[in-house]
Amino acid sequence: MSASRPASILQTRFRLAYAYPVFFGEDFLRPSDDTLARVLASKAGAGRVRVLFAVDEGLAARRAIGDELSTYAAAHRLEMLGAPVSVPGGERCKNEPSVLDRLHATLHELRVDRHAFVVVVGGGAVLDVVGYAAATAHRGVRLVRFPSTTLSQCDSGVGVKNGVNRFGKKNFLGTFAPPVAVLNDASLLRTLDARDLRAGYAEAVKVAILKSPGFFSWLQESADALREGEPEVVGVLVRTSAAIHVEHIATSGDAFESGSSRPLDLGHWAAHKLEALTDGELRHGEAVAIGIALDATYSALAGLCDGEVATSIVALLARLGRPIAHEALRDARLLEGLEEFREHLGGALSIPLPAAIGRCTDARAMDGARIVEAAARLLSSSLHRRCAA
Ligand SMILES: NC(=O)c1ccc[n+]([C@@H]2O[C@H](COP(=O)([O-])OP(=O)(O)OC[C@H]3O[C@@H](n4cnc5c(N)ncnc54)[C@H](O)[C@@H]3O)[C@@H](O)[C@H]2O)c1
Ligand SMILES: [Zn+2]
Questions:
Q1: Cβ 291 under 6 angstroms from ligand 1
Q2: Ligand 1 atom 9: the closest Cα is on which residue?
């Protein structure tokens, strides 16, 4: 049989370059600070800068962030397209379709177009839903992020992804959409409770395991100060973790994750399943801590890393006040998380597992019985019993 040939082919090829700054500082919203205004002006072209603010309700309950944004806009002659939009904080804003619908409706009603900006201040969940709404309205309204939790400042807020949960699956709807800029404002972390302040530490441990023995040692040395939430030490964690994260996106050659290998998802196959199995009782950062502890323990059992590597990872997480196990690890449905993770990635299963501090290996399969054994070890460990007590 002869191969069919098209009558003709037009070959199209083009490249897109992305660049965005991540600023670190304190009180970017005081009227005398012009960082945000300059970023917007540099991208806006002629005419007044038009902007819609969206704020995390959890933050707004503790700080008059809407008033601060309005005052800032007036001081810098930014045209507000409406009052700041309030978005329910936490995972429910990604679970509840009406939140996304309302955001789209607001963008429509206020005529927010692709030459305007959405500026969002919030935790990782609010950044994800607002980012998704902005990225899908008019095929992409420009976004500036002010991450307001430790996790979002050191991980999700500085990256290129957004998303909402559907059909019981994390981030089933989502896009890759680099922001215009990210402003990591340390003052926003002051209103966090201890639980949300620490939630981000697992993502910092994650990038240290992946890329930086030096950062891992620093986390070990600083664990007590971090557990106490000392602002300066938390600032170093945020800065270092964000830098490693952004460096990976810029230099890995796979910013939009089209390959199978996804090192930044270390610990996440189990984490996403644990979040679903506990119906949101576990925060993302808590589930990631347990997921990392599980994968490290598994890796040692499978002979992929030294036992000492796994022990030091689990001990660090516990010293940082992170959970290392949860009763949901006993749930047989945990193993379904592997296939769900593969489906989310597409292609063949590829699970990053610690090989050493500073290096991971991609596993093409995980053994169910060994996962159950790793979970049992964590559940019976004295570190877990001490954390859970
Ligand atoms: N897009 C990505 O690449 C990416 C990466 C990692 C995680 N995530 C997502 O991030 C989410 C987790 O984010 P998170 O850990 O920031 O938690 P979160 O967004 O769920 O927020 C936790 C709680 O803190 C409140 N809050 C936020 N800022 C506050 C402040 N400054 N003061 C007081 N309260 C405040 C929120 O209202 C909420 O109740 C998950 O949905 C996860 O899937 C996304
Ligand atoms: Zn994560």
A1: no
A2: 124
What single DSSP character describes residue 266? T
Per-residue pLDDT tens for 66-78?
999 999 999 999 9
138-189 pLDDT, tens digit each: 999 999 999 999 999 999 999 999 999 998 888 999 999 999 999 999 999 9
| Rounded average pLDDT over 219-229 | 97
Give the chain's mean pLDDT: 95
pTM over the 0.85 mark: yes
Nearest CA to ligand 1 atom 13: 124
Our mutation pick for probing the ligand 1 site, out of 145, 284, 340, counting the most ligand atoms within 8 A of Cβ, is 284
Structural contact between residues 81 and 40, judged by C-beta atoms closer than 8 angstroms:
no
C-alpha 284 to ligand 1 mean position (Å): 8
Within 153-271, strands assigned E span: 164-166, 169-173, 181-185
By CB atoms closer than 10 A (0-12, 13-18, 19+), residue 36 is buried
80 neighbors 52 (Cβ within 8 angstroms): yes
Q: Pick 4 or 346 by higher pLDDT.
A: 4
- What size, in residues, is the chain? 389
Verify whether ligand 1 is closer than 6 Å to residue 58 (CB atom).
yes
pLDDT score of 347? 76
Q: How far apart are CA 221 and CA 216, in angstroms?
A: 9
Sign of the CA dihedral with 90 first, then 172, 136, and 35 last: positive
Q: Looking at the DSSP assignment, which residues form a beta bridge with residue 51?
A: 80, 117
Alpha-carbon separation of residue 295 from 292, 304, 313 (angstroms): 5, 11, 10
Residue type, 138: H
Given a contact cutoff of 8 angstroms between Cβ atoms, the answer to whether 264 and 252 are in contact is no
Ligand 1 centroid, distance to 125 Cα (angstroms): 5
Residue 208 structure tokens: 């240290």
Query: Is the pLDDT at 388 greater than 70, yes or no?
Result: no
**All residues at 6 or more sequence positions from 103 whose CB lies less than 8 Å from its CB, including other chains:** 54, 85, 87, 129, 130, 133
